[in-house]
Every structure is written in C-alpha cells, then in structure tokens.
C-alpha cells in the first residue's frame, strides 16, 4: 500500500495554546507609566524614575498574588499608592494600567492568521494576567473570538510555570498533550510546557512562527507564486 500523501495526512497537532502578551498583543509599559506619572494627577516617587516604575512594580512582593487573583483591583491600587507614590483616582489608574496593552488592530499576530488557524485547530489562550487586564481584553479585543477557551492566571489561581495552569489549558484544548502546540515568548514557560508533554516553541517574531507552523503542517506550504501576484 502506498503511503498517504502528506497533503491529506492527519495533522499531528489538534490544538494550539497561545500566550497573549508579547505573542499576540503588544505590551508597551511606557504607555502606562506616562499616564500614571502625569504632573498634577500623581505624586512622584523619589526612589523610582518614571521609566523604571513598571519593572519595579513587577518585582513587588504582591505581584504574584495580584496575578493569581488573591489581591483585588482596589487593594492593588491602594498598595501601589502606598509603595510607589501613585496617587491617581481609581478609574484613572485602571485606564493607565490598561494602556500598557496596545489596542487592536496593532497586533503581533494578525486577526486573519488566528481566524485561519481556528478553522482547523482548537485555539486556547493562556496568560499570566490580572483582573483589570482580563476585563479589558475580554471587552476590547475581537481576536479572542477565535479562541475556544481563555485560561487566565487570576481565574485559575496559579501562574505559569505552575503545572496546574498548564493542565487547565490542556483540559480546555480537549486533546492529548502530545497533540497540542504551545507558543510563548518566555523560554522558561516553553520548557515547563515541554515537561508536561506539549509540543512547545518560543515566539520570536511572526515570520519565524509562520515558518514553524508550516514545517509542522499547521499552515499550508508557502506559495511563492501567489506571494508574487
């Protein structure tokens, strides 16, 4: 019996789990810092320059509890006010916090690509993120309609690289781990996913990802003739 032609062979990947920040959506912390630090709205912290405040916030002891949903938005706002001298009203703070996420259509991966992938594969979003960003993402970003499930650390109660959040995503993907492709920009998380049996690749840029997807037969081969026309 002759082998089945590769063009119609059953794909080895049934589902794709995507990280969101710096894989699909662009993150620009300076956008948030500039709003938080506007004269007349917030107090200046003498210890931390405006350009470094986002990095300092991510190193705060409450950062992980905040990402895991154990700190409420109001508590986080109050905590940052006490720790970093951020004295904005709550809604102004929420707007500034969400400003770090660059709005559509300026995505790292275009909506059209995600739509194409969703036609042949179950897509799952997996992100370490907080309640403010979740509400903003869910209400403002249309690309999420292509995803069958959205797994957020603040809802699950654990952050990557904890195996429990990966298992939640695997369950949502409705496929065995070895038939799931995981895509993340953070190498630590890529390696953690591999330990659980997922096929995992580190996101560097769109062209390299698309080439990788073609090599795995997730996307069709590149048509050079069509590209020239």
Describe what you observe in this structure.
The protein folds into 2 domains: 15-26 and 108-228, HAD superfamily/HAD-like (Rossmann fold, 3-Layer(aba) Sandwich); 29-98, no CATH class. The chain is built from 12 helices and 5 strands. The protein has helices spanning 29-36, 53-58, 63-67, 73-84, 90-98, 111-118, 131-140, 153-156, 163-173, 187-195, 206-215, 224-228; strands at residues 15-18, 122-127, 149-152, 180-184, 199-202. The chain starts with 14 loop residues before the first strand and ends with a helix.
What is the compact description of this entry?
The chain is built from twelve helices and five strands. With 229 residues, it is α/β, with parallel strands linked by helices.
Helix content: 40-55%
* Separation, N- and C-terminal Cα atoms: 39 Å
Mean pLDDT: 88
Query: What proportion strand?
Result: 5-15%
Low-confidence stretches: 1-11, 38-46, 225-229
Q: Count of DSSP E strands?
A: 5
- Please report the first level of CATH classification, the CATH class of the largest domain: Alpha Beta
What brief labels describe this structure?
5-stranded parallel β-sheet, 229 residues, 10% strand, Rossmann fold, disordered C terminus, globular, single chain, alpha/beta, disordered N terminus
How are the SSEs ordered, and which strands pair?
Elements: E1 15-18, H1 29-36, H2 53-58, H3 63-67, H4 73-84, H5 90-98, H6 111-118, E2 122-127, H7 131-140, E3 149-152, H8 153-156, H9 163-173, E4 180-184, H10 187-195, E5 199-202, H11 206-215, H12 224-228
Parallel strand pairs: 1-2, 1-4, 2-3, 4-5
Helix pairs in contact: 1-5
């Amino acid at each position: 019996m002759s082998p089945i032609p590769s063009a119609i062979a059953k794909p080895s990947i049934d589902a794709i789990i995507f990280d969101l920040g710096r894989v699909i959506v662009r993150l620009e912390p300076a956008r948030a810092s500039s709003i938080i630090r506007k004269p007349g709205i917030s107090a200046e912290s003498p210890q931390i320059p405006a350009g470094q405040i986002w990095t300092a916030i991510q190193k705060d002891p409450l950062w992980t509890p905040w990402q895991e949903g154990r700190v409420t938005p109001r508590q986080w706002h109050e905590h940052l006010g006490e720790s970093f001298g951020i004295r904005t009203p709550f809604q102004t703070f929420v707007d500034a916090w969400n400003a770090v996420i660059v709005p559509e259509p300026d995505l790292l991966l275009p909506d059209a690509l995600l739509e194409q992938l969703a036609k042949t594969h179950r897509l799952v979003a997996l992100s370490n993120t907080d309640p403010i960003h979740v509400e903003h993402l869910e209400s403002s970003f249309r690309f999420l309609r292509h995803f069958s499930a959205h797994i957020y650390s603040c809802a699950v109660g654990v952050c990557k690289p904890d195996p429990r959040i990966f298992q939640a995503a695997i369950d949502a993907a409705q496929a065995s781990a070895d038939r799931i492709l995981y895509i993340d920009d953070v190498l630590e998380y890529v390696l953690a996913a591999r330990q659980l049996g997922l096929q995992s690749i580190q996101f560097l840029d769109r062209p390299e990802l698309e080439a990788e997807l073609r090599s795995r037969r997730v996307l069709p081969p590149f048509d050079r003739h069509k590209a020239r026309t």
